[in-house]
Amino acid sequence: MFDSPLQDTYEQVMRRNPGEPEFHQAVQEVFESLAVIQGRHPEYAEHSILLRLCEPERQLIFRVPWVDDAGKVQVNRGFRVEYNSALGPYKGGLRFHPSVNLGIVKFLGFEQIFKNSLTGLPIGGGKGGADFDPRGRSDGEVMRFCQSFMTELHRHLGEYTDVPAGDIGVGAREIGYLFGQYKRLTNRYEAGVLTGKGLDWGGALVRKEATGYGAAIFADEMLRTRGASLDGRRVAISGSGNVAIYAAEKVRQLGGTPVTASDSSGYVVDEDGLDLDLLRQIKEVERGRIGEYAERRGGRARFVGTGSVWEVPVDVALPCATQNELDGADAKTLVEHGVLAVAEGANMPSTPEAVDLFAEAGVAFGPGKAANAGGVAASALEMQQNASRDAWTFEHSEERLTQIMTGIHATCVETAAEVGRPGDYVVGANVAGFRKVADAMLAFGVI
Ligand code: NDP
Ligand code: 2IT
Fold this sequence. Notes:
Layout lengths: L5 H11 L4 H15 L6 H5 L2 H6 L3 E10 L5 E12 L5 E7 L5 H17 L6 E6 L8 H15 L8 E4 L6 H15 L20 H18 L9 E4 L4 H12 L3 E2 L1 E4 L2 E5 L5 H10 L5 H5 L5 E4 L11 E3 L9 H9 L4 E3 L8 H10 L2 E3 L1 H4 L2 H14 L6 H25 L6 H20 L3
Parallel strand pairs: 3-4, 3-5, 6-7, 6-11, 11-12, 12-13
Antiparallel strand pairs: 1-2, 2-4, 8-9, 9-10
The structure holds NADPH dihydro-nicotinamide-adenine-dinucleotide phosphate (NDP) and (2Z)-2-iminopentanedioic acid (2IT).
């Protein structure tokens, strides 16, 4: 598939990591991008930079026993993949979802290396989580799970070592329980060891909004390179969690109309534009299901329990739920409906077939590692505020986020053009993200 030595490295990585399809998918995409610059950097091959980059620095797997409300002992599996620390402490979220396994955590951690590099901030890449399903669990059960999880993980963390945050199933509630247990075990108020904290205890303004806001800003930037913008556009959003809700809010602020939201039970279409107060009430406060949105919207929205949210005709699509949620058939439908831009709020939501179809059709496509980098960037700003015992205003924090997102967009555009692939944000993001990490690794010698 690739010229050697890229092909040799690729084969070694595949052989060493069997049965991990999402990880393979993420690696393959990066290798395809790096093939574009093959031959330009013999020093990388000479020092086996890519082979080292693909092998996590450390992988932790641990038992998480806890007692449920009925008094029964439950056992989950916890993970933390400390992938690469060339640019800073391992940084990346924790995902609590029944589908979590080592391959999922590795794909997320691998993506995180390049994403974090693109932010220009001093953060390495990592990811973690557990196959714990918070849905239907009481606050007490979630607390006991988080305490048990942190009882093992705390010895591997530290503000200069490894700094987790949220992801699917992990929000401010879970970060609170995790931080409380870390503080108790270590007897240190080490605020910078976790990000996404509550605003009263070390959290930073705009972190909650940052991923979704950033994805909408990235979509707007892509449209602007084509003489358009989000203003007046109909936008489909999948998911109805942290990323989706704040992507919708920023779309609205930029003059667009978010018309859909979804969860694993189906999707809603609200032609007038989503009522974000209602969506937040149902999802953030009540932890309810998306069908309730349509029920409580007084006939203005409809719930669809089958099919795909991408069937709704729109100008812009923001997949903000989970990996591989937008496949080739969905991409075909979106293209037929004249979609102009797709920006990934989620990590790897588009299948490779979908990405190829967008490219063929000339749709502006922003990959997650660029388009959703606002969340981790705001986490790095939270670490900065914690380290300086300071708290910035919302306006200042949002300005920094906007600068970072427009900067990432510009980096992708410039890098893609420089390597002869103008307009290819996948190549731009992968090459630019890789080079910084690779150069730091070269500087450090063989470690
Ligand atoms: P949340 O847990 O807040 O929300 C996740 C949403 O996606 C829910 O609506 C959920 O529905 C849906 N979803 C999750 N898994 C599935 C599935 N297997 N099938 C269908 N729907 C699913 O998570 P976030 O909003 O934080 O994360 C969403 C995506 O964004 C993830 O890919 C995450 O990795 C990525 N991301 C998150 C960042 C952050 O700062 N939080 C930063 C960058 C990327 P249901 O409740 O029914 O499962
Ligand atoms: O995928 C991601 O970038 C995140 N879940 C956020 C990571 C972070 O450390 O804020």
